[in-house]
Structure formats: C-alpha cells, structure tokens
Amino acid sequence: MSLSAPVPEGDPDSLIAALAQAGRAAQAQLAQLGPERRKAGLRAAAKALVAGGSAILEANAKDMTAGEARGLSAAMLDRLRLDPERLGGIAEAVAAVAGLPDPVGQVIDRTERPNGLVLSRVRVPIGLIGIIYESRPNVTADAAALCLGSGNAALLRGGSEAVHSNRAIHAAMVAGLVEAGLPANAVQLVPSQDRALVGSMLTAAGVIDMIVPRGGKSLVARVQADARVPVLAHLDGINHTYVHAAADPAKAVAIARNAKLRRTGVCGAMETLLIDARYPESAGLVAALLDAGCELRGDARACALDRRILPATDQDWDTEYLDAILSVAVVDGLDAALAHIARHGSHHTDAIVTEDQAVAERFLAEVDSAIVMHNASSQFADGGEFGLGAEIGIATGRLHARGPVALEGLTTYKWLVRGTGQVRP
Amino acid sequence: MSLSAPVPEGDPDSLIAALAQAGRAAQAQLAQLGPERRKAGLRAAAKALVAGGSAILEANAKDMTAGEARGLSAAMLDRLRLDPERLGGIAEAVAAVAGLPDPVGQVIDRTERPNGLVLSRVRVPIGLIGIIYESRPNVTADAAALCLGSGNAALLRGGSEAVHSNRAIHAAMVAGLVEAGLPANAVQLVPSQDRALVGSMLTAAGVIDMIVPRGGKSLVARVQADARVPVLAHLDGINHTYVHAAADPAKAVAIARNAKLRRTGVCGAMETLLIDARYPESAGLVAALLDAGCELRGDARACALDRRILPATDQDWDTEYLDAILSVAVVDGLDAALAHIARHGSHHTDAIVTEDQAVAERFLAEVDSAIVMHNASSQFADGGEFGLGAEIGIATGRLHARGPVALEGLTTYKWLVRGTGQVRP
C-alpha cells in the first residue's frame, strides 16, 4: 500500500515539480483544517512511529548492513543506527511539537488608521519546505513534525545510507496523519535517491519556498552555492569566547571548559579562546583546558603561557575543529577582541566573560553574530535551550530568521486590512 | 572635490567588492554613532538638498536634454524631470524619515529561562543594501534615507538617463551627512554606468546583504533571475477585487472605480474584477466602470452584462495592464473566486467587497497574498497609507518581509543572552 502520490515519470525537474504541486495542494488543505487537526495529526504520527517500530527497526537493520558492507565509519554508523530507545525518543519529539504554541494565526501587530482602516499582520505558514539531509534518520521525523507544527508541507530528501529507515519512518508517519484526517502529501519523501533530484529541488524557486539543509559542511556549502530557493542554514560555527580583564576566574574556567569540551562536535562549541592581555589568571585558564585533555594552538603570547601550547598557523583562526582542539589568542582589550571576531567569526555564537557590565554591553551591541552571550557557555546555542521546544536548525544568514529556528521561523505573515468601504483620495 | 571613495581600478567584481567593503565599514561606524546622530545626518542631508538645489537642477537639465536627444518617451521624461517643487518634496521626504521611530535596538521579545539565562531578541540593521533603479532620481534620496534611517549603508545604482541628477543628489546628501559627522561611505553611488556592475552587485552574496530593485517589470525580472543576493521585490501586481453576492452596491462601485482608476499605473491597482454570479447589481457595476472610461474585457457571462465589454483572451487573466483596462469574470461563489485568485494572482493585494462578515473572514484567511483587504480599495497598498511613514518597496516573496516594507523590514535581529556564569549540563 502506498500512501504517497504515485511517482511521476520523466526528468528530475518534472518529478520535483509534480511533488511540489502535490505538497502545495496538501498545504492549502492543512490551512483549512486548522491547528487542532494538525496537532492531532502529530500525535497520531507519533503513535504510528511506536506502533510501526518493528518495521522501522527492520528497515534500519538493512541500512546498517549495507553501511557496514560499504565501510561507513563507526561515527556514521552510529548516526544511522536506531534502537527501540532511540525510536521512542523520535516519537516523543514528534508528540512534543504538538504541545508547542501554534504560531499560525498569531497577530504580530494591529493598527487603526485615521481613515478607519484596521490593519493587522498575521502569521501564516511559509508553504512548502524542502529538507535535504544526510544519514540521520531522525531528521525525517523531526523536520516533518516542525513543518506540520507550523502549517507547512514538507518535501524530504534524505541520504542514501538511510534510505530504508527513512522510507519506513515516513510511511509510519503518513499512516498516522491520514488516520487523523490529514492529507498524505503534507509530508512527502522524494522517492528516488537520484542526485539530480537534489539539484532540481535547489532550483525550484517559486514552487519550493525554502530549503533547510541538515548535515555536514560540504552538504550545506553545496546547497548554499547552488540554491535559487532561499536557504535557512549555517555553514560554520567558528565561535569565540573572550575572557576580559575583569572576568571572574572561576566563571572563565567553567565557561571555557564547557564551551569547548561538553560536546566538541556541536555547532555551538567554542573554537577560539581570546584572552585579554590584562587578564591576571590566564595561565590557570589555559592549564585547566590542557589538563582536561584539550589541544591548544596559540599565538606567540598564548604559547608563552604554557609550554604545552602548540604554535597556531594563520589557518587556525578560521578553522572549525569540531574536536578537542582550540585556538587561543591573547588580545589587547575589547577593541582587539571585537576586531578578531569581526575578521574570523562566522556570525554564529560569540561570548564574553567579564564582571564589567559596561564592557559586556558594548560586546553584546557590537558583535555582529546571530547569538551574542555574556557570562554563559556558547553550548547553550540551541533551540531547546532557548525555550523554543525544538529547532529545525540555526541560521547565520541575515534575513528572515537568525539563530535557532523553530516554529515561528517557519512562518511568514500577511497584512489583513479591514475596511467599511474606504477609497483612497 | 570628491566626497566618496576614489574609484578603484580593475574588473567589475573588484570594483563592487571595494565599494561594498567601504560601505560595510561605514555601516559599522553608523552602528556606533547611534540613532540620534543618524537622524541628525538625515536632517542635514535634507537641508543640503535644498541648499544644493541649483546644482541639482542644472544637472537634471543635462539629463533632460540628453533624454530628449535620445528620444525618451514623454512619460519617461516626466519621471526624470526635477523642478524646485519636486526637489523640495524629495528633501522633505528625507527629513520625514528622521521623524520615524527608529527600529534599531528595539527589543522584539525577552524571556528568562529556568537556569537564569535572560534571552532577548533585538533589532539590528541588515548591513549593506544595494538599490538598483531606473530613471527616477528621487529614488537616490528616498532609498538612501530609508537605509540610513534603519542603520544600514546603501550602495545605489541608478539608471543612465538620470546619471547627472543622481550624482548631484548624492553629492549634496553626502555633504550633509559628512557635515553631521557621519561617514561619507554610508551612502555610495556606483561611479560608472557600466552594465556589468549590475551583474557584479547581483552576485555579491556575502558582501551585499540585500538588493532592492526599483523600476519596471523587466528590471525586476532580471534582478530576480540573476541575483545570488536576497532580493526584496514584487514582479507583478495582478490584484483582484471580488464583489460578493452580499456586497453593498454603493461600496462596490466606489471601491472598484477607485481600485482601477484612481491611478492606473501603480502596483496596487486592480487588474481583475470578479463578480459573483448572484450579485444583483452587476450590470450597474460594470456600467459605472465603462462610463468612467475604463475598457472592460470579460468572460462570456461578463460580456452578457453590457454590450461595451470586449471578450477576454486567456492571457487577460494573467495581465497587469497598468492602464485603464480591466478584466472581468463572473464567478460562482467564494470558492470559485478563491480558485481564480490562487491560479492567476501575483500574491500582491486582493480584496473582497461584502457585508457578510463570515465570508469576509474566510477570504482574509484563505487568500495567500501579502495584503488581503475587506471593503477597501486595493490602491491603499502603500507604506505611507499603512502608517509606515515611507516605503522602500512592496514585497511579494514569502520570506523576511511581505507587503509594504519600510524601516522595520530593513532590519534583522540578533539574540542577546545574559548569564551569570551558566554552563550547559
């Protein structure tokens, strides 16, 4: 039994166009069904993921066998692997989206004009969101749930490694949606792994409204380079923590260790530590990181702090290690720190540690990043930690949405104008 | 005396990159100078436009002479022409932007997390805005003022017809800005009319943050087709007015006449009239438009209403006349009207005339356009009429900003996170 649209014949562009048309039609139906029906659909999809667990795990076992045969790395196999516990977590995350406040229909502002016209801006779904992702099968469920939770239709294109897992997860979710009276095409999975289809998605301006790439840097870079559709993404998280002269030493050590080492592979991890030349406890700060097993690569003044610090090359300042490696520079005051961040940062998350409130406020005002922090670990850069309940990703572009993006970032608005017969003079 | 950066040598991409770099540096300075200094700069620029009036009018006379020699149409010459009154209006519009509420620094929302982190989203300028426009020299001043009023730097590229006028307006404004202590490069005019420079602006992703095209459909279409930088624009205003069965006949006539004929060349003008088959006064409605000198092109049922109505072709439903011509279709109820608009509309401005509140609310909810109106003329689609004080344009894209865009639409936001030493568990 297939719950999705039949696969159309023809070239990649025609296939994507047909899927997009079906998705847009489903999105229009969603709009008429209203938020409670969408929430019921999400809960039914979550239940179907649990009910269909054995089929999903069987499909995942196929992907794991194929992945091992293809010699995928242990890290990749771990990303791919599902077990009952992980699947339960995926289902819970889908149900949790149903519990989030619904942004659709929210009134942003309302004004009455002197001529009596009443204007309001009301949040509406963006439309059809394309998600292009790699080997993590949980993205199939997460992304679909966030799109549905904001009234959008989703067109999913997952990685080849997870093809069976993704199909099984998708089939279960769609069965749940249909049971709850939602259109099957609200969530579609691109039915072929032909790579040309990714190109067709990226150039489908006007029929796909936004693309969200989820995966490593090479995927995001390709999507950003080739897309004609607006892209919501971040390429790098070259995040700085600046320990100011007036930093509290205990906070500096705790924040630096957490920002770098709590999890080294996340986009919110610190990659460069800037230490003020007048900070009195710099030797203790770098020693704490070295003692915790972090490799440090420093400029000349940083290397003078501890013999274990390796000399940094020019390239280090522009590198996102995603590992227990950190570049360290000693800087002369706030302006030098701001200049370093402006030159080498990736506009993701940058932080200052200081007890000087005026310096903190200047840092918050002048650093041009999606997230700027004072006395906190950059690893808080996360939609869940920000209270958004989830996230489709973190955006470092300048338009539409910045930083962690969840339901609100998947909406746009329209102007409603209510009159009583007004004509323009 | 040149107040702008010297023209760099080299290919178009390098020239645009150098201008963009200078603009970005000036924008960073603007951020530090704060809103009052920007407002003072706008007022000084407005004064300088008046003080430099004779030089500007002389430059404009050169453009007019050249335009006449090149055989520009009367309409184009009128767009190009400046006189003391028009120049006074331009200066007043610049000064008026200084009187608008400043969006920069506005706190969008603020939350405190259970762990004590305080999060706020604060509006910040987008950065460097590129404006590509045609023969109207007033755009030089308008666009520069709106960019400055929202803390952005502007890179302007006007049409060849207005080259002398644009240079004179730009020089006067920059003199005013510099006098008020603002950086000269906050507003730059691309110093050559080489068409390749437009291409370089459109592909300068990462150094120009947004492009706003201002001009006719062919300019906007080219910009949308070639740009790698995000574009804020509308291509068409194929705006519908649906006269429902329960419309008040007096309102229907007044709104339809105003929406079509007040000014036929504006993007908010009605281009298609949809008349409900059950509306009892349809003959009077079309007669009022015909009597006012409007050409009507109708479907078979519309043609039956009045012998003066010409038969419409398929193409008419997708045509933005920008003239005293209107397509007219008779539709069977709200659903048919919604289907017609979904198929032929351009997501700009669509309106319903009805006394039935429930029908009006369905129309407002279901029409997917930047602006949806009830009992009002679509010619109200304008930033000034919406109370925004001005507009850089009307956007029909789905992301970032929709409908009339003024200062707020020229900003983005960043997240500020204020902690007391929190680390992530």
TrEMBL record, chains A, B:
Enzyme class, first EC level, given as a word: oxidoreductase
Subcellular location: Cytoplasm
The reaction(s) this protein catalyses: L-glutamate 5-semialdehyde + phosphate + NADP(+) = L-glutamyl 5-phosphate + NADPH + H(+)
UniProt superkingdom: Bacteria
SUPFAM superfamilies noted in UniProt: ALDH-like (SSF53720)
GO MF annotations, alphabetized: glutamate-5-semialdehyde dehydrogenase activity; NADP binding
Short name of any one Pfam family annotated for the protein: Aldedh
Subcellular location, principal: cytoplasm
Enzyme Commission number(s) from the entry: 1.2.1.41
Ranges of residues in domain Aldehyde dehydrogenase: 6-278
GO annotations of cellular component type: cytoplasm
GO BP terms in the entry: L-proline biosynthetic process
Keyword Membrane among record annotations: no
Pathways involved: Amino-acid biosynthesis; L-proline biosynthesis; L-glutamate 5-semialdehyde from L-glutamate: step 2/2
Keywords: Amino-acid biosynthesis, Cytoplasm, NADP, Oxidoreductase, Proline biosynthesis
Task performed by this protein: Catalyzes the NADPH-dependent reduction of L-glutamate 5-phosphate into L-glutamate 5-semialdehyde and phosphate. The product spontaneously undergoes cyclization to form 1-pyrroline-5-carboxylate.
Protein family membership: Belongs to the gamma-glutamyl phosphate reductase family.
This protein's name: Gamma-glutamyl phosphate reductase
Source species taxonomy: Bacteria, Pseudomonadati, Pseudomonadota, Alphaproteobacteria, Sphingomonadales
